[in-house]
Amino acid sequence: xxxxxxxxxxxxxxxxxxxxxxxxxxxxxxxxxxxxxxxxxxxxxxxxxxxxxxxxxxxxxxxxxxxxxxxxxxxxxxxxxxxxxxxxxxxxxxxxxxxxxxxxxxxxxxxxxxxxxxxxxxxxxxxxxxxxxxxxxxxxxxxxxxxxxxxxxxxxxxxxxxxxxxxxxxxxxxxxxxxxxxxxxxxxxxxxxxxxxxxxxxxxxxxxxxxxxxxxxxxxxxxxxxxxxxxxxxxxx
Length: 237
Prior knowledge:
The chain is mostly helical. About 70% of the residues lie in helices and about 0% in strands. The chain is built from 9 helices and no strands.
């Protein structure tokens, strides 16, 4: 719950500013719109299985099969790296780039830059990015609580589900890919930007594996769900 409060600085900046993107209702408080959009997103995300097309169903079944295979091989896969203390420490340091407290300044930077430069695109990236990260935080916290999976260094390292853990899915992966997806969609004509944001999200996610904070399936699931959430936010708002 406390991790969600990290979005407070962005919400404060949004509610204090009056700039609107083209197409928004004049003078409508952005904070109110933000909250409404997140609620709508959550409804769409959790009810999406009931509205998917046959094509979507095939895609999600494939995704489920991949995650299932990854879960079955997680314990063996986590033992393939040297797993030295230096490796884990270095990887965890890198992975902090994708932590919520590291993403907040990025979101605030987009929005503040948009206000100063009077750029609706920059402001919109900050707002939609914050929405995507908020959605990702909510989804990941709910799933972590529901699955209760143990982390790689807990217990016998088997990554058992429903044992009070918080490993599935990877919060860093889902948050990083949610924000990367929004930025990549909004700046899709800038190939360097697209490559950079997805590359950074991948690096953050991989470092969670090499740092033995998550299993491969945690990261794959988090990354795909994060991309889906970011894409949904971009297309819906």
